[in-house]
Amino acid sequence: MYTISEALRGIFKNKLMSTVSMGVMSLSLFIFGVFIVITINLLILINFAQKHVQLEVFLKDIPQEKVQSVYEARTDTLYNLISAIDEVDSVTYITKEQALERFKLDFPEFTELLGPDFNPLPASFIVYPSPGFRTSIYLQNISHKIQDTLDVSLGRVEEISYGKAWIDTLDRWVKTIIMADLITGLIIAIASIFVIANTIKLNVFARREQIAIMKLVGASDSLVSKPFLLEGSIHGIFSGIAASSALYFSLKMLGRWATNIAFPTLPMFMILIFIGFSLGIFGSWLSLRKYLVDPWIDEDNQKGDRTK
Amino acid sequence: MIEFNQVTKTYRKDWKALDDLTFTIDQGSYTFIVGPSGSGKSTVLKLIYGAISPNKGYVQVSGFRIPGIPKNQLHLLRRKVGVIFQDFRLMEDRTIYENIAFVLLVTGTPRKTIKDKISTVLASLRLTHKIHQYPYQLSGGEQQKVSIARALVREPFVLVADEPTGNVDPEGSAEIFQILKDINSSGTTVIMATHELDYVKNTPFRVISLTQGKIVSDTKEKRCIQ
């Protein structure tokens, strides 16, 4: 009860400092929020591009009618084995007929070259790697697993192909973008923490006399600290709400320009409120430490008699 | 009882504020500490309420020894010592009631008891009508009386006053001296640092005179010698 009333007193009696603190925190969290939104959308874009990363496993034609059922059974087995590979997300089977249909759709100008009963295209598996395994190294691994391990006794695979060049280019871009994003995020985070910590420090500094008086009349450190910590966390929570609301309404105001921007409303509110709360409470604790100490005590206790 | 045992306090490495000071103050006594500026009066008082620690020797205050008191027990010492400062040190953003209530809140006193105690102490100092005012609305003398009320409300075993009349007009000073005398009559030990020698000249109480951190005269000692 004492802690709550003291914290509320701190906020309402020091309106200017509270407003400045919350303003600075809100602005910093808003900038950080913009960065998070950009990062989320970049990741979505990267994920979209990487969904096109795939492996095509071309299957041998079935040589004779009489062994057809055996080969089909082997194809099914291979399908199951490929699906069970850890790095594989999903597998799609494309029959010879489906491959021909696709060819006709993709290259209508060559359709006439194919006779009515002529289909040179093989059946295949389209293998989609799981997220995180969409680079050429993993594709090579998957390819080895299929051709050199699983298919050894089945003998169904003719050839495995994937666009190594463009996957490598994509991979380089993804790495560059993620690195740039991380560095930017780090700079924004450090700048935000620095600005917020200094604002809180200023708030505590303005009341250092009060802290000194409280200590002189017998208040314990925890009794002095608790209201400040609560006040810091209240500032942080409200700043988080203000920053996420500002982000939300900014995107609303952008209207149709922002329709394609992903903004997970609830998680964004929760993340910014949590960061605000953590920074508020941690910043207050750090700032308080300086004004709570009786510098001589520790030093002298080491050389003095510990008995009361 | 308060005991100073061969206490030396040095500031900035080589400036001795107190030099090998030894004396005791009895429970229930009234002691003046006098001396020119820089003689070490405030240092003696600061040692009693644990604002500083001696470089040599020790100070024993009601079972607490400095140095040696653990950091997490310092507030317990300060709850037993009532302190009055020259500059009052009242919290400017709180009313008189809130300033006094704070020292009781920190010890977990129930709100009903706080109300009763504050009423009693303010009535005894004739300050009841100022209860909802802020320190800046009060004169120097009144602010010092609030500071005394704050120190008294917790019934300390010793009241330490550091130049309590320094920022108070002569009329107010006389009143403060009388109040402290009354407090002592009720059994509380009072130690007061002052440079107002007129009040001390013919006092029946003990007077310790300091110069450059050493005791140059002690009326109690004199009496003992006589």
Walk me through the topology:
The complex is a heterodimer of chains A (308) and B (226).
Chain A: H1 2-13, H2 15-50, E1 55-59, H3 68-83, E2 88-94, H4 96-106, E3 124-129, H5 136-150, E4 157-161, H6 164-206, H7 208-216, H8 221-254, H9 265-292, H10 295-303
Antiparallel strand pairs in A: 1-3, 1-4, 2-3
Helix pairs in contact in A: 1-8, 2-6, 2-8, 2-9, 6-9, 8-9
Chain B: E1 2-11, E2 15-25, E3 30-34, H1 41-48, E4 56-61, E5 64-66, H2 74-80, E6 81-84, H3 96-105, H4 111-124, H5 140-152, E7 158-162, H6 170-185, E8 189-194, H7 197-201, E9 206-211, E10 214-218, H8 219-225
Parallel strand pairs in B: 3-8, 3-9, 6-7, 7-8
Antiparallel strand pairs in B: 1-2, 1-4, 4-5, 9-10
Helix pairs in contact in B: 3-4, 3-5, 5-6
How would you describe this protein?
The complex is a heterodimer of chains A (308) and B (226). With 308 residues, chain A is of the alpha+beta class. Helices cover 69% and strands 7% of the residues of chain A. Chain A contains 10 helices and 4 strands. Chain A has helices spanning 2-13, 15-50, 68-83, 96-106, 136-150, 164-206, 208-216, 221-254, 265-292, 295-303; strands spanning 55-59, 88-94, 124-129, 157-161. Chain A has a 4-stranded antiparallel β-sheet. In chain A, helix 2 (15-50) runs antiparallel to helix 6 (164-206). Chain A starts with a helix and ends in a 5-residue tail after the last helix. Chain B is α/β, with parallel strands linked by helices and 226 residues long. Chain B has one domain (2-225): Rossmann fold, CATH 3.40.50. Chain B is built from 8 helices and 10 strands. In chain B, helix 3 (96-105) packs parallel to helix 5. The longest helix of chain B is centred in the last third of the chain and has 16 residues, at 170-185. At the A-B interface, helix 1, helix 7 and helix 10 of A face strand 5, helix 2 and helix 3 of B.
